[in-house]
Amino acid sequence: MSLNAHRRVTHVNHALLRMLNPAVGDMTTPRSLVGADLRMLYPQEVLEDLEPLLRRADRMGMTTSQLEMALPRAKLNVAVTVATLQHEDTRLGYVLVFEDLSDLLKAQKQAAWREVARRVAHEIKNPLTPIALSADRIRRHLERGTRPDEASLKIIRSCSESIAGAVETVRTLVDEFATLARFPASQPQPASLNTIVENALSMFNGRLDNIQVRTDLASELPHVMADPEAMKRALANLMDNAAEAVQNSMVREIQISTALLASRDAVELVIADSGHGVTQDLKEKLFLPYFSTKKRGTGLGLAIVNRIIEDHHGSIRVEENKPVGARFIVELPVAPEAIGTASAG
Question: Fewer Cβ in 10 A, N or C end of the chain?
Fold first, then answer.
């Protein structure tokens, strides 16, 4: 589907029409939808998901998200890609691509669970055998009812060691399966945090309409230990959240600053907004997986940010911004090679 700058349909193909049907009622041809407002195509709760994507595309040029769309025909899992059409500083419109992932996701989940079940059964079966045999030998020696002699004690000790070893094998297997769910590990290296901030900001060039962005990046900051690409993704996510938070504010302002902490062993990055802020209850849950303040958000954005920063041995917290809004504070350790220089400075 393509939209003009006023978000009215300029083109829609038959595949999308089939996906929407019968949500579009009597409008059964692509031509009949030209000029239609999005509200004619989608229910309100779907529009609430699309609106942030359109705004994010305005800021970043293109964005992709996975949504659950409740249509009259069915509930669909779709991948939505939104790209802006722009000539110089003039926004011409948008291109939206919808991909129905429902059958694919269902098949992938079934296949994944079958594979997990098969591997778990196979891998855990082996260490369970010595556990069962050793426990049985210990039981038989204890059932004799006599005081264990040295030979029996030797067997019992050997069996307990076999059980402990097999349990450790199972624990290792569990850790390996848990590793499958982890994000790609970051590879921190000495890097300039100011440069990372500037690179993250460049992703939003010309796309923060009506939002005033103020930066106060401290000069001569020591290098921090950071994976530049991973940290850029994390900061871009925080900046996009800040831009989303100020959408309905009277004053739309984002402040980004960096500074060396008084301890001189870490650098602080602050991203502050003039949005709706966060309550004490939200502060405690904000970085948990699958928690979101949005009605239909995935709740993974800040959890991913938190995970990336944890991989950097850093920390992130949220505080109230004065007079309104929220402040996200990230601390990253100074690179070892720079600690001596920072202490002497």
Answer: C
Mean residue pLDDT of the chain comes to 81
- Tens-place pLDDT, residues 229-244: 989 989 998 998 899 8
Quickly count: other Cβ atoms within 10 Å of residue 199's Cβ. 16
CA dist 311 and 225 (Å) reads 10
The three-class DSSP label of residue 168 is helix
Indicate if the pLDDT at residue 156 is higher than 90: no
Residue 278's Cβ-count burial label (10 Å; 0-12, 13-18, 19+) is buried
Query: Rounded CA gap, 231 and 74, in Å?
Result: 39
Contacts of 46 (CB under 8 A, 6+ apart): 67, 69, 70, 71
- At 223, list the tokens: 């290098």
The Cα 30–Cα 39 span in angstroms is 16
Distance of alpha carbon 97 from alpha carbon 16, whole angstroms: 9
Residue type for 94, please?
Answer: Y
Decide: residue 338, CB within 10 A, 0-12 exposed, 13-18 middle, 19+ buried.
buried
Q: What is the pLDDT of residues 288-306, one digit of tens each?
A: 644 444 543 334 567 778 8
- Domains belonging to the chain, first-starting first, are 2-100 (3.30.450.20), 104-179 (1.10.287), 189-344 (3.30.565.10)
> Facing residues of 317 across strands?
329
pLDDT of residue 345 exceeding 60, the answer is no
* 266 contacts 333 by C-beta, under 8 angstroms: yes
- How distant, in Å, are the alpha carbons of 65, 91, 152, 336 from that of 47? 14, 21, 73, 49
Distance CA 154, CA 172 (A): 27
Instruction: Judge contact between 319 and 245, C-beta under 8 A.
Output: no
Q: Which of 332, 312, 102, 57 is nearest to 203 (CA)?
A: 57
What value, to the nearest 5°, has the Cα angle with vertex 62 and ends 314 and 207?
80
